[in-house]
Target: Mitochondrial intermediate peptidase
Amino acid sequence: MLCAGRLGGLGSRAAPLWPGRAGSRGLGARIRARGVSTSWFPVGAAFNVKPQGRRLDLFGERRGLFGVPELSAPEGFRVAQENALRKADLLVERVCSVAPGPQTVLIFDELSDSLCRVADLADFVKIAHPEPAFREAAEEACTSIGTAVEKLNTNVELYRSLQKLLADKKLVDSLDPETRRVAELFMFDFEISGIHLDKEKRKRAVDLNVKILDLSNTFLMGTNFPNKIEKHLLPEHIHQNFVVAGNHVIVDGLHAESPDDLVREAAYKIFLYPNAGQLRCLEELLSNRDLLAKLVGYSTYSHRALQGTIAQSPETVMQFLEKLSDKLSERTIRDFEMIRGMKMKLNPQNSELMPWDPPYYSGVIRAERYNIEPSLYCPFFSLGACMEGLNTLFGRLLGITLYAEQPARGEVWCEGVRKLAVVHESEGLLGYIYCDFFQRAGKPHQDCHFTIRGGRLKEDGDYQLPVVVLMLNLPHPSRNLPTLLTPGMMENLFHEMGHAMHSMLGRTRYQHVTGTRCPTDFAEVPSILMEYFANDHRVVSQFARHYQTGQVFYAALDQIYHGKHPLTASTTDILRETQEKFYGLPYVPNTAWQLRFSHLVGYGAKYYSYLMSRAVASMVWKECFRRDPFNRTAGERYRREMLAHGGGKEPMLMVQGMLQKCPSIDDFVSALVSDLDPDFETFLMDSE
Model:
């Protein structure tokens, strides 16, 4: 109920403590504008050069991570969590004694903020900080805050303080729409945590939630563990593609872009080889989620998870996925035949199409069809040029400029991290984005967005500025050459920056509903919409987007895993059956792809959200931006109707406000299918 869920890739992987939504608009006139700073400098140059170190700051005061004084050392996490828990106790006492009214909601939100500011920050540090001591301290803080929150979720006295407000019709009618919605969201979070149960069952709900959190963390760690094989079992000529340690070859990923078929095959079979402990962990996680859902009154975990989303129910999700699968079936066959033809052309001795083939061969087809190779297009996609492109786009669409700012000593966790100030032309400083873009040992491979601190209107009239981290895995610039991006890397950059802009512009009164703290199938809309901007000039074609079919398969598998229990077969047998129905390529024996499916944690029962969000983003793009991607009027409307509310408004109402109609499931399906067959001439004309 208190801490909002994290968003994007790994950023969303932890189960929400108090699930986040998002909030209101129109705060600009009531908040004092933040002025500009003389320490800001152009954003493009900051990303095209190697950092020169901080020699001038060696003797300066050491701040903590993200400017939090306590976090100058790992031990500071214990101080921060103890301070947060003490403040939480005081706020619980306060809200239980105050007369019901708007102040009740404000105190609830302050309670949420006090815990989220530690839990969200720790949630990032525990996976991203290069120093083990910081990671371990952050993990301990996450566990401590998470356990406390689960107890608050079933605190009857706390619940009754909110119930008194919502039970008084006259008081409810006097609340503004945003405050009323936030109150209802807090109440909803109580209810799905089992507040209505007797004391013994409430304790059972707390225990299940804590166990699910532990299992989720264990499963997530397992999804990234490498596998190893005795090196004599692999042909010697492919050893160089992997890490060799003594008598073993270490495989830490799928090597999907390798031009060597044997390397991709070996990586697929070794990396996805079933791990018995990881399999038990997944089965236990799914079982405990089902037990929790039934305990609090839902027939399945999916029914519990989809409350308040665009889809609303698992029945709607499966209807959407099955209709989409039917519409894509002929296209999928054509795509796979074309990919099979390319494989036959390049490797006639082994032309059978296998699951490890499509990413590589579709890229070959794309390059051949449009006569583009990485050596030709990468120099135009320097990271600095992409950041300047984003700056231009945000300036023309939204009146926003990104400035680089030198972080203080101790403020960032790695030398390559850049800090950006987000500044509006009339509203001033909106917040900060920390860009952790470059590869390093031990860093998670996923690209993602983390909320570190949510925005909210404070009692003194100041606005608490949002702080987020964007994490990518790009090569470092060299002394003479900037980081060069492929089109796929550039699209990922735009995607994550879409989440960041949502966080900056969802300037709600309450942090519980700020920015990306909204239903998952709406939260991905701004990020996916940015992909349309990234591809507007069609430097790289959208051909053979077989990932659509793959996503339908993943989403359907997710729904089945979180549907009726006990499951009708093992998770691997269900994987095989679902793959045969929705994907079109054969299951490979002795593999267990589901054990690497990290989204089962943060997006449990909600993986369909990528597809539904893409459908909404497609409709918004075609309706508002395809003719003129720099249209300021459309940009302001987009901010007003979609970004500004965060989760403080029903997601379908935001979609309706933007599109001026209520889309149906068929509309969503049609939008996705039409994306696969663009009118190329119209496309070019629109981009001129």
